[in-house]
Each structure stands twice: as structure tokens, then as C-alpha cells.
């Protein structure tokens, strides 16, 4: 802010009201705030000191010492000069005791608001700290009647006040006395304590004398004093804001500098009764709450304020958490459709971020009611996004894997899945190890991945008849084709919705014959071939066989390895190579029949490895 704005003023009915523009400023401040409020009789120069705290020559309106310029409470927000990540909020109040206003109730309300909103309260007066000065501070004696800590507290019980009342600074302007008591030099704070000293006795006069002093002592245990001499000559007081430092008293400037440094160093961040840190946003809500309560004729209650603020902040935190979640999911939505795993992972990540956003703003959600409400709303949103993900159609190019499972009758497995779905490809290849792969070009047209497609093969039975979708969030699905006799196979992939053909191919009869020949060529038929093959590839078996558990199971079932060895290789923490070395040595010691059985098992479990080794030998 480059200048102050009015925070609290009077409406058409004469009641105090908060100004929307100032509230909007506070709503933007997410940092903790240090709130310094200046109160005091009118025409005592409060605004000048506030401008000094702001580090400015002008800003808050100065009076000419014959009229009050400030009306209501004005606010100036700025970065704190020495506390990083903190905002300094200066509140300049209208002068108290203005005879032209003649409204003592309004003065009391202004004073109470300054106490409620500030973390440091500066009371400004002129002259000396005598009995008249104490009597002019009558508002402090009325605090207990105009502020409550708890809804049901005794009106005379002020023991809780000290826990939340601000630091108190008495600024004495135009001070002309020497700081001495009985000829001994004293400090300004000692001067204040001397002025607050109580008289002994129980007479009415003594009790009236002691009352304001007792209230200050009880309500403001942290208190300090600064005494300011006249800043300049009387005739220049009306142009004080335009005077340069050279035109001001050096003593006045020295005290002003000490005063500002003290306020910056000692003023704490504003906190609620339960210790919760007040941000600018919270301060705005508190201000409106207190002003509305006072304007309604009720007495502000700090405990009620904390409860109300908790409700406001927790509800706002719920909204912020939902916004974080929805914002992230809307970005993800632009990439729909996606696999269930991917959507779920992003849901979990955004749910965590939403909870963090809620926790950063919420307080006193002791029973977790608002957090549970947030989680419930997020769950409903997640269900809605899952439905939207299911409904979105996206076109993508698909990969193709085609296998001959059986030649007589001819059984083919036809797999389609998105090109980038490596997981499905790995599963398919593992499932089809005993089948023969048939090379054919994949479709060159994009598919609507969640739209069912049907495979038409004349003269064959095709399953599933209802069609399949090419999704990544399900196990790989496929068309099973079964023909009673081997001839050319024509395939036509049709989009079920509009009967549009998206891919066609023909597998010629000669291809099946060739595949059978290749399959026969790549098999070891005689025992002598299997024995020599076993002996020649010891290192390859040890290094390249991966499906060792299944191989070990079959070797044990056929009695090739004994139970002790099986237990040793399946229960101990050893590598695959170590297991295969033990298996190879055991099979080798079993002779030619054991070696042949091992090769037969290997042809079932590792056909690709076996074919590769046979090709390399040839």
C-alpha cells in the first residue's frame, strides 16, 4: 500500500462499519501480521508518530492542533522493516474526547477495537503523567464491561485478559519535566511505574484514584513509556509534516528513533486467544466480526471469535483444498481416457496436496469434522472423474501380436493394444511362449480405444463375439479364431458402433505350412541331439534361462532332481545363475535321459531361447 485507507467508519445510521476496500486489501495478505494501533485524545499528534513508523513524511492525516482530522480507524499495510515474511499493519484511530462529537460510547468502542485488533497498543497523551492524564484514560476502566473472554464469564473476572491483551506503550508528548524522582535520575519506564503507583486506603477518593492504575497494571503487564519534547516551535506545529529533520528538535528526533526501533523489535505477531497466528485475511474477518458485534449492541467475546474464525477458516480451507484437487484433475482430464492406475495415482497425489492446503489454513478442527468433509467431497469428485474417464473416447494407433496356437484345427490368437503399452506386450509374449508368432503389419488407422471392435473371419468361430476394447487398464484381451480346415484366413476388424472396417489382412495357407516347417526345424528330436546340445550350452543355460522356478518344479516332478536340492534352490536367497548352475550340475550327473528330459522341459518353458541357440549353432 502506498497510502493509508479507511478500515472502520460510520454508516448512514451512525453505526460503525468496516470498509469493503480495506477488507479486500487484508484478504490478499497471507502472511502473519504485526498490528500496531495508536489511540489517544484528539489533537495529541498521533498521526505524526504513525507516519514515522511507516517510514514516511506524510500519509496519515495530521491535525492542525485545533481540529481532529482522523475519523474512525485508518489502516496502512507494509512489509515489516526487520521481520521477514511478516506484514506490519498500522492502525490510526480518531481522537478520543472530541467535544464536537460528544459521543463517549463511540470513543469507548474505538478504544476497545484498538485493543482487540492490535498486538501493540500505543496510547498518546500530552504533558505529564499526572492524575488528570490517568482520568483521561477512563476507557481502560471500561474494558471489562465491553470485552469478554468467555461467553459465560463473570463480568468482574479479568484474570484471562492478560493472556491476549496487547503490549502497552504510553507515548507522552510535549514533555517538559526532568526525569527525576527525589533528585535521582530515572528511566522513562520507571517514570510510568511511578505514575501507576497505588495509594493505600479504602476511601472512595483513594479507590477512584487507584482504579485506572489498577486496570493498566492488570490488563497490560508488558508496558513501556516514551517521553517526547516539543518537536519544534509552537508556530510551526501546523506545518509539522512539511518540516525537514533540520527543522526539528534533535532530542525529539532521538526519542522518535528509539520509539520506532522499540516498536519494530518488541511488537509480536498478532495471535488469537488460543495462540493461532493471525494473517491479514484473518485480521480482516476478525475486524468485521468485532465491528458487527459492537454495532448490534452486543459485547465482543474472544472465545466466540475464535470459534467463529475456526468455522470461517476451516470452511475456506475446505474450499481451497477442493480447488487444488479440482485444478489438478481438470488438467489430467484433458488427457482422458487414461488407465485406472494412472488416474488413481494422480488422485492420491492431488488428495494429499488438497489436505496440505486445508491444514495450512484450518485450525481448531479438533474432531476432524471439516477434514472428513473435504475427504468426502474429494471422493465424490473422484468417482465423477472416473465416470468421465470411462466415457471419453480417444483415438490411438494400436500394436498387433498374432499367434498360431494350434494347426489342426487351426487356432489363432489375435491381440490388439495401444502402441505404447509395453506392459500388455510383455504379458502377451509370456502367455504365448508355446505358440508360433505370425508376422503381419499392425493397423495403420487410429482406433477409438474404448469403443468395442469385432473381428470378422469367414468360415471361422471368433471369440469374443461381442467385441473388445483396446484399453491399458485391463489384462490383455484377444480374439480367438478357430477354423476347422486350413486354408487362407481373411480377417476384417470392424468398429461395432458404425460397422466401419479399420483393418484387414489375409494369412495365406502357405504361411501356415512354412511356420510348421520352421517349427519342426527348430526342434531337437533325437536323444543324441538333445544330449550333445545340453553339453554344448552349459554357460548359455546358466546365464540366460529365467523361468527357473517352473523348470525346477517339472524336474522334481519327473524325479530328475531330489527333494533336498529342490528345497535348497527354492528356499535359499540365491541368484538365478546360482540356481541354474546347481540344476545343470544335477542334470549332468543324471546322464543322457536326464539331459533329454531337461531339453524337453526347456522347449516348453524357454522356446525363444532354445530357438535362438539352435539358429546360432546352424
Strand content: 15-25%
Structural class: alpha+beta
Count of individual beta strands: 20
Measured between the Cα atoms of the first and last residue, the distance is 86 Å
Largest sheet: 8 strands, mixed
Question: What is the class of the largest domain in the CATH system?
Answer: Alpha Beta
- CATH level-two architecture of the largest domain: 3-Layer(aba) Sandwich
Number of domains: 4
The strand line-up of the biggest sheet is 2-1-4-5-3-6-7-10
Reported by name, the CATH topology of the largest domain is: Rossmann fold
The helicity comes to 40-55%
Q: Please tally the helical runs, counting DSSP H or I stretches of 4 or more residues.
A: 21
Form type: elongated
Q: What's the CATH superfamily of the largest domain, by name?
A: P-loop containing nucleotide triphosphate hydrolases
Give the overall average pLDDT. Answer: 87
Radius of gyration, in Å, reads 44 Å
Low-confidence stretches: 64-68
Describe the 3D structure.
By secondary structure, the protein is α+β, with helices and mostly antiparallel strands. It has four domains: 268 residues, P-loop containing nucleotide triphosphate hydrolases (Rossmann fold, 3-Layer(aba) Sandwich); 88 residues, Up-down Bundle (Methane Monooxygenase Hydroxylase, Chain G, domain 1); 122 residues, Immunoglobulin-like, CATH 2.60.40; 95 residues, Death Domain, Fas, CATH 1.10.533.10. Helix content is 44%, strand content 17%. The protein has 21 helices and 20 strands. Strands 2-1-4-5-3-6-7-10 form an eight-stranded mixed β-sheet, with helices on both faces. A five-stranded antiparallel β-sheet has the order 14-12-13-18-17, with helices on both faces. A three-stranded antiparallel β-sheet has the order 16-19-20. A hairpin with a 4-residue loop joins strand 19 and strand 20. The two termini are 86 Å apart. About 1% of the residues have low confidence.
Amino acid at each position: 500500500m502506498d497510502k493509508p485507507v479507511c478500515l472502520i467508519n460510520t454508516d448512514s445510521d451512525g453505526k460503525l462499519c468496516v470498509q469493503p476496500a480495506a477488507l479486500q486489501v487484508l484478504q490478499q495478505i497471507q502472511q502473519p501480521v504485526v498490528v500496531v494501533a495508536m489511540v489517544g485524545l484528539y489533537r495529541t499528534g498521533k498521526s505524526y508518530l504513525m507516519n514515522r513508523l511507516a517510514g514516511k513524511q506524510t500519509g496519515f492525516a495530521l491535525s492542525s492542533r485545533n481540529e481532529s482530522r482522523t475519523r474512525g480507524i485508518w489502516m496502512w499495510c507494509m512489509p515489516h522493516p526487520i521481520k521477514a515474511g511478516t506484514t506490519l499493519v498500522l492502525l490510526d484511530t480518531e481522537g478520543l474526547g472530541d467535544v464536537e462529537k460528544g459521543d463517549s460510547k463511540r470513543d469507548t468502542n474505538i478504544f476497545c477495537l484498538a485493543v482487540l485488533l492490535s498486538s501493540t497498543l500505543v496510547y498518546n497523551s500530552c504533558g505529564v503523567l499526572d492524575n488528570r492524564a490517568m482520568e483521561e484514560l477512563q476507557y481502560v476502566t471500561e474494558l471489562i464491561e465491553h470485552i469478554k473472554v468467555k461467553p459465560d464469564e463473570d463480568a468482574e473476572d479479568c484474570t484471562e485478559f492478560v493472556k491476549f491483551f496487547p503490549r502497552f506503550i504510553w507515548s507522552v508528548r510535549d514533555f517538559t519535566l526532568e526525569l527525576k524522582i527525589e533528585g535521582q535520575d530515572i528511566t522513562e519506564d520507571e517514570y510510568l511505574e511511578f505514575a501507576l503507583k497505588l495509594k493505600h486506603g479504602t476511601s472512595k477518593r483513594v479507590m477512584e484514584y487507584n482504579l485506572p492504575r489498577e486496570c493498566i497494571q492488570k490488563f497490560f503487564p508488558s508496558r513501556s513509556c516514551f517521553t517526547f519534547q516539543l518537536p519544534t516551535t509552537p508556530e510551526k506545529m501546523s506545518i509539522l509534516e512539511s518540516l525537514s529533520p533540520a527543522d526539528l528538535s534533535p532530542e525529539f528526533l532521538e526519542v522518535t528513533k528509539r520509539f520506532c526501533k522499540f516498536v519494530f523489535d518488541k511488537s509480536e505477531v498478532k495471535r488469537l486467544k488460543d495462540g493461532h497466528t493471525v494473517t491479514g485475511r484473518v485480521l480482516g474477518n476478525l475486524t468485521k466480526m468485532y465491528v458487527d458485534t459492537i454495532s448490534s449492541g452486543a459485547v465482543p467475546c474472544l472465545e466466540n471469535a475464535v470459534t467463529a474464525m475456526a468455522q470461517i477458516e476451516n470452511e475456506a480451507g475446505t474450499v481451497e483444498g477442493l480447488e487444488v484437487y479440482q485444478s489438478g484433475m481438470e488438467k489430467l482430464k484433458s488427457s482422458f481416457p487414461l488407465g485406472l492406475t494412472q488416474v488413481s495415482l494422480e488422485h492420491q497425489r492431488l488428495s494429499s496436496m488438497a489436505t496440505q492446503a486445508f491444514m495450512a489454513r484450518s485450525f481448531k478442527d479438533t474432531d476432524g469434522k471439516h477434514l472428513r468433509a473435504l475427504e468426502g467431497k474429494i471422493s465424490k469428485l473422484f468417482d465423477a472423474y472416473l465416470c468421465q474417464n470411462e466415457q471419453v473416447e480417444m483415438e490411438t494407433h494400436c500394436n498387433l501380436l498374432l499367434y498360431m496356437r494350434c494347426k489342426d484345427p487351426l487356432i489363432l490368437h489375435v491381440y490388439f493394444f495401444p502402441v505404447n503399452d509395453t506392459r500388455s506386450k510383455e504379458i502377451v509374449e509370456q502367455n504365448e511362449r508355446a505358440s508360433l508368432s505370425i508376422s503381419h503389419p499392425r493397423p495403420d488407422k487410429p482406433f477409438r480405444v474404448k469403443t468395442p471392435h469385432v473381428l470378422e473371419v469367414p468360415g471361422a468361430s471368433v471369440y469374443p463375439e461381442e467385441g473388445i476394447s483396446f484399453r491399458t487398464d485391463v489384462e490383455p484381451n484377444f480374439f480367438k479364431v478357430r477354423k476347422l480346415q486350413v486354408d487362407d484366413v481373411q480377417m476384417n476388424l470392424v468398429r461395432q458402433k458404425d460397422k466401419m472396417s479399420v483393418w484387414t489382412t489375409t494369412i495365406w495357407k502357405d504361411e501356415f505350412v512354412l511356420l510348421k516347417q520352421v517349427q519342426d526345424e527348430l526342434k531337437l528330436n533325437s536323444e543324441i541331439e538333445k544330449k550333445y546340445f545340453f553339453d554344448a550350452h552349459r554357460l548359455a543355460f546358466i546365464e540366460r534361462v529365467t523361468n527357473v522356478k517352473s523348470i525346477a518344479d517339472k524336474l522334481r516332478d519327473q524325479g530328475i532332481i531330489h527333494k533336498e536340492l529342490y528345497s535348497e534352490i527354492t528356499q535359499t536367497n540365491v541368484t538365478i545363475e546360482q540356481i541354474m548352475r546347481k540344476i545343470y550340475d544335477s542334470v549332468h550327473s543324471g546322464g543322457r535321459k536326464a539331459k533329454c528330459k531337461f531339453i524337453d522341459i526347456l522347449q516348453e518353458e524357454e522356446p525363444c531361447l532354445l530357438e535362438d541357440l539352435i539358429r546360432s549353432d546352424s
